[in-house]
Amino acid sequence: MAAITLFKTSMLRPSLSRMASTVNSAVFQKFGCPCSVLKVQKTQLKPVTSKDVQVRMVASPITSFDLEAIRGQNPMGFAFPTVAGNEGVGIIEQLGEDVTTLNNRDTVLLVKPSSGTWSEEVVVPADSVMKAPEGIAPEIASSLLYSAGIAYRLLADFGTLNPGDFLIQNDASSAVGMAVIQLCKARGIKTINIVKDVGEYSALFRRLESLGADVVVRESQLHGVDFKKIMQDLPAPKLALNGRGGCVMTDMCRLLKNATVVTYDESAAQAFDLTASYFTVNNLCLKGFNMKAWLAGTEMNTIKAMVDDLAGMVRADDLRLYLKKDKFSQVVDAVAEASSAIADRTPVMVMNQ
């Protein structure tokens, strides 16, 4: 998210009014329900300094992590009023005089958090963008970091899984969950996938199976005899991914021994109940991952290597992202759809529509 100045003509002296650059942006001035607090209105771009770039946005997704920030669940310390949006793809319109690694008209991926990408244009530090991967559509490139990127880091940063090893995850039908399935399939890792008790299960099962899921089970089936038998017959999962929290997290942990459990989503912050025996007897290790913090503290060449790997998988059709294009002018409607419990595609705002 990016703090901004709301545009008022009276704020500008006549001699400066011709220079003022105003754009439409999705702004919120307090935390709350995204559908209630988010408004599209004119904002004033800050001046382009010597190390900045001005970017005309082309595409920006609406992810659960954007919605959590608007609700105040993962705010990263920004000030109001602020423009929503963390990631996106755009085209450089203006370069600061000290910027030498980029060119005008370059298509770039905004990678540092809180960039305010839900806007027609943004001004950001040049070192917060990288050239977008070639050969994939802007809406796909714009959606790599907070879905497939999180899946990539969860598999890379929390132990070593070898071909044939098992992983278990809840929230498996989310954008992150589906990316986990596909990355695991490419690496020969087996997945046990827990999905919500909403929507049409048979269609969801077919989708996850087509992506490479090995076992798919609904949350309501976790206590069933059939699923317990399946778990007894399979190798014990070494890694568990928690995107839900609450009783679903507790139920998943009951199935585990000698495993690392990683919580990665602020919506998973619902309290869960684990007694001391989960650690002293079952030897579970609980960890957390925050993509915003990782991006903010990671050098660009490391981020680029990850993006290049993911883009290569997209080009090879080994990674599919389920997206739905929406007009930026209809951002509030798109946010409402993204907030739905049965949303099955990530909305991506096309900024010139």
From TrEMBL:
<dbReference type="InterPro" id="IPR036291">
    <property type="entry name" value="NAD(P)-bd_dom_sf"/>
</dbReference>
<dbReference type="Pfam" id="PF08240">
    <property type="entry name" value="ADH_N"/>
</dbReference>
<keyword id="KW-0809">Transit peptide</keyword>
<keyword id="KW-0496">Mitochondrion</keyword>
<keyword id="KW-0275">Fatty acid biosynthesis</keyword>
<keyword id="KW-0276">Fatty acid metabolism</keyword>
<keyword id="KW-0443">Lipid metabolism</keyword>
<comment type="similarity">
    <text>Belongs to the zinc-containing alcohol dehydrogenase family. Quinone oxidoreductase subfamily.</text>
</comment>
<keyword id="KW-0444">Lipid biosynthesis</keyword>
<dbReference type="GO" id="GO:0141148">
    <property type="term" value="F:enoyl-[acyl-carrier-protein] reductase (NADPH) activity"/>
</dbReference>
<dbReference type="InterPro" id="IPR051034">
    <property type="entry name" value="Mito_Enoyl-ACP_Reductase"/>
</dbReference>
<keyword id="KW-0560">Oxidoreductase</keyword>
<dbReference type="InterPro" id="IPR013154">
    <property type="entry name" value="ADH-like_N"/>
</dbReference>
<dbReference type="InterPro" id="IPR020843">
    <property type="entry name" value="ER"/>
</dbReference>
<feature type="domain" description="Enoyl reductase (ER)">
    <location>
        <begin position="36"/>
        <end position="342"/>
    </location>
</feature>
<protein>
    <recommendedName>
        <fullName>enoyl-[acyl-carrier-protein] reductase</fullName>
        <ecNumber>1.3.1.104</ecNumber>
    </recommendedName>
</protein>
<keyword id="KW-0521">NADP</keyword>
<dbReference type="InterPro" id="IPR011032">
    <property type="entry name" value="GroES-like_sf"/>
</dbReference>
<dbReference type="GO" id="GO:0005739">
    <property type="term" value="C:mitochondrion"/>
</dbReference>
<dbReference type="GO" id="GO:0006633">
    <property type="term" value="P:fatty acid biosynthetic process"/>
</dbReference>
